[in-house]
Amino acid sequence: MTLLDEPTAAAPERAAAPRSRAALWVLPPLLVVLLIALYPLLRVLGESADPGTWAEVLGSAVFRDALWRTVAIAVTSTAGCLVLGTFVGIVLAFVPFPGSQLVGRLIDTVLSLPSFLITLAFTFLYGTAGAVNAAILSVTGGDTPLLNFLYTPAGVVAAEITFFTPFVVRPLLAAFALVPRAQLDVAASLGASPLRVLRSVIMPEAWPALVAGGSLVLLLTLNEFGIVLFTGAKGVITLPVLIYTRGIVTFDLPGAAVIATVQVVLSLGLYGGYRMVFARMTTGRGVADAAVEQAK
Question: Transmembrane segments in this chain: where (predicted)?
């Protein structure tokens, strides 16, 4: 018995050595993350440590206007993306038509493009010298461009909706693919209208994907810089544009650091709220599914 027990006692000691050495592999990526992510944030916080700079920046009308405009554009763009993305997702998933797969591929392609290309395309289409205005003037014979919204907050919102809607469509398509066709057939056989099937069967399964896509779009639009800059909208000053102006143009690094800190706090607060809401939704769905299983 003694000879049999000795190898068993020595086995954990031999297994512990490779595990301790494997833990050392965590250090290189951890150091890279600290260097790339944490160090710049600490530098920004260090530049914004002066209370006088905080009072000067937060008390300025330019900062308040930029904060309000940033939130307004982000919320409006997110609402537009949710409405348009839900409609496109439902059509692609449940209304088959020739070319639907091509449309899906085009949506995936938009996800890989930089945002300024959308703004450039909008300029060629809807700018004062764009194709749409040229076509209208050729028909009406006028000399004043009819469309002049591109260089306003409405133009920024339209460009952001166009670019960020695929971030809502793609999670919705994944969620719609998980809806059993048998449920749809049973609901239709019981006399439910398509609108009721959509409201009672399809959308409850898609709410987590809709919340996830909407939260991602809200985060991205809150920090969007390229679309606003390339649109060239006069007077449309958002927080990212204000950071660029004060940090690069006027070399006011402490002021830019204060605004950047506010931007980081907004983003982290929004992300934390999204995680809480998403956790509650998934927990609620888990409890409901468990109750259904017990009822069966």
Answer: 22-42, 71-95, 116-137, 149-169, 206-233, 253-274
